[in-house]
Amino acid sequence: MSARKARLVLDNIRGRTVPEARTVLAFTSRAAAIDIERVLHSAVANAESTHALDGDELIVLEAYADEGPTLKRWRARARGRVNRINKRTCHITIVVAQASDGPRPKRAAKSTEAAEPTTEAAPKRRSSAKKKEVAA
To answer: Please, where are the H alpha helices in the chain?
Structure first.
């Protein structure tokens, strides 16, 4: 699958605990969720065996998809021509870590307050057409 399709699913699990991430992936209808669930399972198994951590107490610190090699294929078209088909691949990376003992910060919600422009804006410049009218 393409990295763009995988990133849509990875954005939903980033910053969540492993049980929450597994639940989100189980109910996600995108095909990328199946492959991402396998990568998450592998990351948790590596953390449990290598670092002796409890899998249910881990959080997903980082989750990203980088572009992989593109397979070039051809499809026959009318009048003896061909069309190129790019079969894109991606490298999925998930980093899990031990959850801190303190309260976990909630996921940042999109706020409309930060998107509002400030009232102290620079004065607008006059266009050159208006300058000519004023000078004439």
So the answer is: 3-13, 18-26, 32-51, 128-135
Q: Positive or negative, the Cα torsion across 56, 60, 61, 62?
A: positive
**CA-closest candidate to residue 7, choices 27, 36, 34, 29:** 36
pLDDT digits (tens, 9 = 90+) for 15-31: 999 999 999 999 999 99
89 CB neighbour count, 10 Å cutoff: 13
- Is 37 within 8 Å of 25 (Cβ atoms)? yes
pTM: 0.71
User: What is the rounded distance in angstroms from the CA atom of residue 23 to the CA atom of residue 40?
Assistant: 12
3-state class (DSSP) for residue 48: helix
49 alpha carbon, distance to own chain's centre: 28
Domain spans, the chain: 3-99
The pairs formed by 45-48 with CB atoms below 8 angstroms and a separation of 24 or more are 47/96
Architecture of domain 3-99: Alpha-Beta Complex (3.90)
- Per-residue pLDDT, 113: 54
